[in-house]
Amino acid sequence: MGDKGTGQGNRRRVLLVEDHAILRQVVAHPLRQYGYDVVEADGVMSALAALAAQIPTIIIRDIALPDGSGWEVLRHLPPRRDRIGIIVCSAWRPSRSEMAAHRPDVFLAKPFAIEALLHAMTEVYPGAAATTIQEQLA
Predict the structure, then answer these.
(1) Is residue 58 part of a domain?
(2) CA atoms within a 13 Å half-sphere pointing along the CA-CB vector of 13
(3) What are the DSSP E strand ranges found in the chain?
(4) Is the CA virtual torsion 31, 35, 77, 84 positive or negative?
(5) Which domain holds residue 88?
(6) In angstroms, rounded to a whole number, what is the distance separating the alpha carbons of residues 92 and 118?
(7) Domain for residue 69, yes or no?
(8) pLDDT tens, position by position, for the chain (138 residues)?
(9) How far is 40 from 35, CA to CA, in rounded Å?
(10) How many beta carbons lie within 10 A of that of residue 44, not counting itself?
(11) How many domains does the structure of the chain reveal?
């Protein structure tokens, strides 16, 4: 997985890209309880606007969005993309070529347990409140 950076300004910032409002709330609420600063986006355009405002530590995103493919969001990441954890959550499994081309760190099939997402977040960014999450999941 590698080091995702050490910048304190965005250390716990998560960009959550999900077009279904209820699912977005179900995921965002516990992340906020764990101390993450969650920025919500309901599609490609709102995700790109959020990226223009501030680069997150972790991006959690769906693939099928109403205004385009979630892969489009990754095409607009800065050159130091290796410092951003990418978690793809989708009801359908991407092809091997899509995974190879876009290199997400983790794929989670929907539906998923919030515990699985929290574990994936510690995998892609070990410094992002890993101790707190591990303590609360124990």
Answers:
(1) yes
(2) 18
(3) 13-17, 37-41, 58-61, 64-65, 68-69, 85-90, 106-109
(4) negative
(5) 13-126
(6) 20
(7) yes
(8) 334 443 344 458 999 999 999 999 999 999 999 899 999 999 999 999 999 999 899 999 999 999 999 888 988 887 766 678 999 999 888 888 888 888 889 999 999 999 999 999 988 886 655 444 444 445
(9) 15
(10) 22
(11) 1
Virtual CA dihedral for 69, 73, 76, 81, nearest 10 degrees?
-130
Look at residue 133 in the predicted model and tell me its pLDDT: 46
pLDDT of residue 8: 41
**Residue of 95, 91, 113, 93 lying closest to 27 (CA atoms):** 113
Is 132 within a domain? no
pTM for the full predicted model: 0.81
CA distance 110 to 78: 28
Asked whether residue 120 is assigned to any structural domain, the reply reads: yes
Q: Which amino acid is at 1?
A: M
Alpha carbons 64 and 55: distance in angstroms, whole number: 22
Separation between Cα atoms, residue 28 and residue 91, nearest integer Å: 18
d(CA 120, CA 56): 16
Say what the pLDDT of residue 80 is. 67
